[in-house]
Design goal:
Helix 4 links the parallel strand 4 and strand 5. Helix 2 packs parallel to helix 3. By secondary structure, the chain is α/β, with parallel strands linked by helices. Strands 2-1-3-4-5 form a five-stranded parallel beta sheet, with helices on both faces. Helices cover 41% and strands 19% of the residues. It has five helices and five strands, in the order E-H-E-H-E-H-E-H-E-H. The protein has one domain: Response regulator (Rossmann fold, 3-Layer(aba) Sandwich), CATH 3.40.50.
Length: 122
């Protein structure tokens, strides 16, 4: 059975590129355009990994990570931040919130897939 990964980014083109890479590697993908949209789509189903942007309207990535860690079903779901944000303070904030990895855009699909394979829940 395919593992399910949620991709949260306000950029439709980034969601598409990430989605194509993940689907090509055999994953199921759920897309959301911001943190609030993502939370609405998390209805208790098994999510093996979340990839989230940091800077988004409505609910940013750090707030989303904090919210997800309060959710019993997703408390241990690994989260990769995929972002243009290279600021160390922002990175630390993401790690403290619960993000497991920080991948900078523009990214190489194989680099992202390597992080996905390492962190994806069994």
């Amino acid at each position: 059975m395919a593992k399910t990964i949620m991709v949260v980014d306000d950029s439709a083109s980034i969601r598409m590129v990430v989605g194509i890479a993940l689907r090509g590697a055999g994953y199921d993908v759920i897309e959301a355009q911001d943190g609030k949209d993502a939370l609405a789509k998390l209805t208790g189903q098994k999510i093996h990994l979340i990839i989230s942007d940091v800077n988004m309207p409505v609910m940013d990535g750090i707030s989303f990570v904090k919210a997800i860690k309060q959710h019993a079903s997703y408390r241990f779901t690994p989260i990769i931040m995929l972002t243009t944000e290279s600021d160390e303070a922002k990175k630390r904030e993401g790690q403290l919130a619960g993000a497991k990895a920080w991948v900078l855009k523009p990214f190489k699909p194989e680099q992202m897939l390597g992080a996905v394979q390492k962190l994806c829940l069994p």
